[in-house]
User: What shape does this take?
Amino acid sequence: MTTNRMVHDVAIVAMGCTPFRDHWNSSADDLLVDAVGECVGSVPGLSLEDVDAFWVGTQGTGLSGQVLARPLRLAGKPVTRVENYCATGSEAFRNAVFGVASGAYDVVMATGVEKLKDSSQSGLSATLPPADGTDVDWTAPAGFSLLAPAYQAAHGVGDRDMRAAMTRVAVKNHANGALNERAQFRRPVTAEAVERSPRIAGPLGVLDCSGVSDGAAAAVIVRAEDAHRYTDRPVYLRGMSFVAGSGAGLASGGYDFTTFPEVVTAARQAYAQAGVTDPAAQISLAEVHDCFTPTEVVLMEDLGFSERGKAWRDILDGRYDLGGALPVNTDGGLKSFGHPIGATGLRMMFECFTQLRGEAGERQVPDARLAVSQNLGGQPGSSVAFVAVLGREL
Amino acid sequence: MPEQNGIGAYAAYLPAYALTGTSLDGAEPPPGGPARGVAAFDEDTVTMAVEALREIAAGTPAGRQLLLATTGAPYDGKTSAGIVHEALGLDPGVAAADLRGHRSGAVALDLVLRGGATAALADVRTTRPGAPDELAQGDAAAAFTAGDAAAVLLARAGRTAEVLDRWRLPGERHDRVWDERFTAEILVASGREAARRALAEAGLDAVDHVVVASSNARAAAALRRALGGSGADAAVERLTGHTGAAHPGLLLAATLDTARPGQTILLLSAAEGADAFVLRAGDGVGSARGGRPVREQLAARQDLAYGRYLRWRGLLDVQGPARPAAPAPAAPPMHRRAGWKYRLEGGRCDACGAVTTPPGRVCASCGVAGGTGGGEKVTLRDRVATVVSVTRDHLTTMPEAEVAIVVADFDDDGLGGGRLSAYAADVEPAAVTVGMRMRPTFRRLWTTDAIHNYFWKLRPWGATTDDD
Assistant: This one.
């Protein structure tokens, strides 16, 4: 199976991202207006009138393209709503990219939004179609916590080492988020706080889980050759792949819960398009889907950053810390920045965009040239996965 | 068809939990006191009927009846036996019907013995917390198919006595009870008369086993004395409580567990009158049992704390997590996928032999389309699976602080394996580990919008079988 680099290369020339947090006083409409406003406002002379087509990603905050068209009062524009679990924001980006890469449009916008805090429930909520009632009513942490015992059994990792690696992921991402004014949680957490937090599912406590928050993000995408008409620091899309898993991991034997095969495939394809042959050495920084701490452990291997069975060790060695060889989730990740589902994929790109433009301030990764944005949804055994490689140069 | 009226096969199902103390003040129960069997929070009369019948009822021929006798059916109006029928995969030509009330167990047995029916007698009994007979009531199921291997009917007699003994209005949870000294007199008189007639018809002066089941403990004791019983039935009852409509079946099953071929049994059930059966144990009684013997199941039970029992029964309203109720199932998908939902049937691929769960049109293993309806259906419900990974849900919508959820792979056995994500049952969540062996058990997952959602859970293998 192959996926090809697109006929037209594309670039991101503007982005916007609201703070992710409990936006008690803002609606989803408000958040979209804020993110789009920041995005368009960052390019002098650019207006919404110049955008030919729009995509909006949301899982449960609204239906149809009117989720975006109505709050912005867009007149006479095509707006498409997309949904792909927690990879929804990336899916909005991907489809917007195709709009430009195909030659159909010159300027497109990808947006994502989610309003989770207007419900009184903890965790995520989703409305599912009528069913036969035979599916386990997993919480998201329960589904992802399956990774831990399976990973330990497969690689001979003891409880103490696994706990330490998971804790390090949480502590690292909160430390990064503390440097980020847009992050939901601005205070670093201690290892002790992580490990003493109330249990949610299996070995996961509250502080092993991503933040439930409200937020929105937006990006303007144009053909690469047009990019410098909008900014002198465009960020180029070097490779991009998306895989919707068949769900076979839950429907038949063989899948062992130590990997996301969907991520492995998407990464391979995105790397091939981007000319990345040794991700561990070539990638400057990565935004990855740390929905729960063991997810980030496994993703370090799926993305080719760590050898199989060694990610826990590399994490403990500080390889993925802000000052490490390959900083991961420099903006705080889902863990600390928060996870308004439809916005998260674009939030990851916002950090890559910021870092590749050298605008990340205290969090800046020196000489960041290539960044990975990896986003997934579903659960181990039945997930959807997006991987993009973004570069300072084409 | 059986050669004679009688019982071909039988099975008892005792839930895995026993309650011995009912002190709200935390006082320890006196040692050697009575116990009651307690159905787990995910069990009801339908699930217990399935567990009792699953190993003996497969061959029920079309034209027969499947009966569910109970005082506590999970639905009013809707026939609960239909759910049992579906879970057992019986021929659609087998009629399914509920029998209700305290006398329904004995009547169902009569319909097995004389009419060739298949029956489950199942009950979940509650009282108000602190009621004098709280420990004297209990939960169990027993099941019988027609035939003559286990026992042959020699004679029967019945008496009807309309009396206000135990009753409750629709929608009420607990029986009300009239002064049992008054009803005992009536039940003893009915019981003695029914037993006398049945023994006379059988031409017997004495029997090898006397079994008395009565919803009135005073009447049961008097009848046992009067009929010269050994007390073996009372000993079982002291460990289970009176299990309502299931009780004559449970005590009969416990007796058949020990009866030798040719021995005679007087089974007397005294409720709203009396039903007496004189049976002779069949030549095949030693191998007519499905599942484990009653006493073995009783010995394997776990003690249950009173607070947990109250929570399970909804007698204590406990704050749950800030999480929506589990969704209610919908009728059309339940109907379309009845094979999967009720019998745990996966689809076996014609091309590669792998099992896909739930069954689908395209094999999850090799991706080959199996044509409309997929390939061969294989039931996973009686097979053994090994835990691949496990988690513990601490935000459960069930009346438990946590539940274990596992992904488990069924043994290949040349049948293609199969994978199931399921809740663990009858086990402390912390005790479930990768590699543990488990076996499906039919349970009620939850009830939302007045729809009971039945499906299979996984129970540690050792708790469900003695053949390893």
Remarks:
- Chain B has a mean pLDDT of 94.
- The radius of gyration of chain B is 22 Å.
- Chain B has two domains: 6-312, 331-460.
